[in-house]
Automatic annotation (TrEMBL):
GO molecular function, one term: cysteine-type endopeptidase activity
Chain segments carrying region Disordered: 377-411
Official protein name in the record: Tetratricopeptide repeat protein
Lineage: superkingdom: Bacteria
Entries under InterPro entries matching the protein: Caspase-like_dom_sf (IPR029030), Pept_C14_caspase (IPR011600), TPR-4 (IPR011717), TPR-like_helical_dom_sf (IPR011990)
Record-annotated Peptidase C14 caspase domain positions: 12-219
BP term (GO), one: proteolysis
Biased composition (Polar residues): 386-411
Amino acid sequence: MSSGLPDPDASRAVLIGGASYRHLEQLPAVTANLRDLAETLCDATLWGLPERHCVQVSDPADAPSLIGPVRRAGDEATDTLLVYYAGHGLRDADSTDLYLALTGSEEYSGYTAVAYQHLRAVVRASRARRRIIILDCCFSGRAARILTMADGSLASEAAVDGAYVLTASPRDRAALAPEGETHTAFTGELLDVLRLGIPEGPELISLDALYRTLLDRLQAKNRPTPQRSQENDVGRLPLVRNRASANGAGPAGPVLDSDVKTAMVASGLRLARLLRASGRPGDALPILRLALRERGPRDRDGTFAVQLELSELLADSGQSREAIEVLEQAFHETHRTPGPEAVAVCRRLAELLQESGNHVQACEVLKHALDLVTTVSTRVEHGRQNRGSQNRGSQDRGSPGRGSQNQTPLR
């Protein structure tokens, strides 16, 4: 991109968060972390990552739920892959390995969680030219005391070749999720820097600039300080526009008409959801309709979320026919834009059609949804096969084989 930012269309983000647990302390702030970080990354005035490229994984219950979305995003991304995890970080009783907690995880029982090395391996296998891992792990008791490596660096343990790893490295839960605050301590500061920018900073905020600012702010508040690890100077590359840049009142870099329209759609959706949550669905309806009218010509799949939200409001208010019409408009776009949002549109449309007695049409819509799932799976599999062929070709030309890679330390 001319602005130097990662290409949103060629980038992916996976935001993973564990807020609810059966055997560990609850972390309600993590829910806000995921929601607000997703909105920030998708803000067209900051980065503009399409909503379809930003996947949220809440309260994963098993390893496939946590690792699967990262693997799929890694297969699709060619520019930047960003993986964020917030939740409990655990240690096994008999090892020093780091584990990411699942809803049913138990302390000191690594077999009930997901080993970080598995996440690291999936991220390392991505073809993205830049890979970013952000770990906002909370720890308690003995787990906190034994977290630090011999060199005092969690980031060194989490390191991924050719990637940038940023860790919160908290000592205890109280420091990570202060009582009365919406977000965890680390992610709260992260969001402030991304949303408000760095005063007297450059037009674009790099990962290194982000880290230094977080370090200064968290130290000033006497809170656990972040750590970082990077390969190939990835930290010098920009991530978002700097809203506090002195080079003008507007956001740094070019803001196109399509960017403005995308921002209007995203803002309208957020406002409508807030109104709906506060018991004012009637006020949310005109905002969603306006957001649909203002969408850009290339924002077909980006407005699926708005159409789904609008259809739910209409159905809840007894306007089922109009709800079906809204989703039928979206359905016609799913042929050109397959993906998770397109499948969600099909499923919801089929439900409304079935409720209205149109069983045959509902079956046709579900059949199309199945075709969409097959199409996406085929693309992912082809990408994985192509990458495997490229890797074998590299080995034939003298690149290190699998055995030598396993012997290369990542820390």
